[in-house]
Amino acid sequence: MNKQTQYSQFIKKEASRLGFLDCGIAKAEFLEKEAPRLESWLQNDYHGKMYYMENHFDKRLDPRLLVEGAKSVISLSYNYYPEEEQRKDSYQISKYAYGEDYHHVIKGKLRELLYSIQQEIGEISGRAFVDSAPVLERAWAEKAGLGWNGKHTLLIQKQQGSFFFLAELIIDLELEYDHPFPTDHCGECTRCIDACPTQAILPNSTIDGSKCISYFTIELKDNLPTEFKDSFEDWMFGCDVCQDVCPWNRFSKPHSEPLFQPKKELLDMTKKEWEEITEETFRKVFKKSAVKRTKFAGFTRNIQFLKD
Fold first, then answer.
1. Among 52, 78, 90, 103, which one is most buried in terms of CB atoms within 10 A?
2. Which residues does cob(II)alamin bind (predicted)?
3. Distance between CA 212 and CA 47 in Å, rounded?
């Protein structure tokens, strides 16, 4: 067994020990196929007012500009599918935000993985990324063989569905590379496109982010657009509609991450209780949660929009 194979096997074993669902490795190089897609997406203003998406165009396409001497992109997935969900007759938050902020939870695990690699192999430099830097994570996950990009543009894994986070370690070590995921298994299915309440999913496997409920309830700082008044379907933070209707998610299994367990009151709160939420309760229910990104003012703006 050569060194690259040996190192790659060690990394995958460590990733599994740390609780990652899957791990794949791709060569750090320019994402040629993604360049025209990203350019077109930006030119069509599908990023809405997420102007930060216009920054670091080159870095998004070439990990070697993010990590000096980068040789490998290690892509990892981490399950967040909950055992229990919110009551259906209440305002909803996306399942990924039920527990503690995934950025911190997964970043800690990535640092531990990098430390293990350094302990086992030697002086390796690298950086950990969890949805907070110019990295096209779904492209890298597909390239590393983790799954395929569904029509809703989220990565799907055959035995797991799509309720998982993606994360990357970009390191300056040459490894054995996995083959890109061979084929798309969505076929003729258009359930996600048909179910999207705001028609944000376009027929060519593209998201018009400027129409997505997640964009409106999390990213948009302005007033919510009145033309979508009746389309929010009780979503007050994020939206899971396209994943909930996806047939592949019948294979989703509950996660075993204690930090992602929701607080009981989050699951049980009624619409009336959400409408009357105080800043103190907001801080208590969403302590260490990704929901705090909206701040109390943004969160209550979303509820008021649904209520009126």
1. 78
2. 60, 131, 155, 166, 214, 239-240
3. 10
First vs last C-alpha separation in the chain: 65
Question: Both tokens of residue 170?
Answer: 């970009």
Q: Under a CB-based contact definition with an 8 Å cutoff, are residues 27 and 72 in contact?
A: yes
Whether 239 has a binding-site annotation, put simply, is yes
The single-letter code of the amino acid at 66 is: L
pLDDT digits (tens, 9 = 90+) for 160-201: 999 999 999 999 999 999 999 888 899 999 999 999 999 999
Which residue is associated with the tokens 């007759």?
89
Tokens at residue 152, please? 């809703």
Is 240 annotated for ligand binding?
Answer: yes
Whether residue 262 contacts residue 85, with contact meaning beta carbons closer than 8 Å, is answered with: no
pLDDT at position 89, please? 97
Determine the pLDDT at residue 182.
Answer: 87
Give the bridge partners for 79, in sequence order.
164
Annotated catalytic residue 131 = yes
On whether 155 is known to bind a ligand per the annotation, the reply is yes
User: Which has more pLDDT, 21 or 204?
Assistant: 21
Tell me which of 62, 131, 184, 244 is the catalytic residue. Answer: 131
